[in-house]
Amino acid sequence: xxxxxxxxxxxxRHGAASYPGRPVARPRPPGTSNATVDALGKLSEALEAxxxxxxxxxxxxxxxxxxxxxxxxxxxxxxxxxxxALADDIEQTLxxxxxxxxxxxxxxxxxxxxxxxxxxxxxxxxxxxxxxxxARHVLEAxxxxxxxxxxxxxxxxxxxxxHVP
Length: 165
What we know:
- Residues 161-165 have low confidence and may be disordered.
- By secondary structure, the protein is mostly helical.
- The protein has helices at residues 9-14, 34-80, 84-94, 105-130, 138-149.
- It is elongated and about 75 Å long.
């Protein structure tokens, strides 16, 4: 099927992805080079990986808590089923145990937050302030503009043309 004035079948059903008149959501400050925006974009990508790691760590924390509470239920059930010695042995050995020597999972989360995540966020903010680019995600905002203003059938990965080299 060929595309008509309103686009092809998908565009007719869901609408076009292009918004040619939409301004850049986060314009770069005048004189900011592509290299600077690229470097800040890479720093943002690294921060996003640290944010994702933090989320996984919080998931680990929640699962450790769930494991401990579920273990306590299992110990109670063993005791009720007449296996008190086994229940006592498991309880003494595992209920409330450190996930690593000296730490419960919440302490890992707190140590990550204070010793890495907060420092990483500060480094990102510091770099943007030092380079005069206070807005986050400038690289992505420009990518959004490029991809949404391109007409159908054109390359949406075209080089930046209107920005300082």
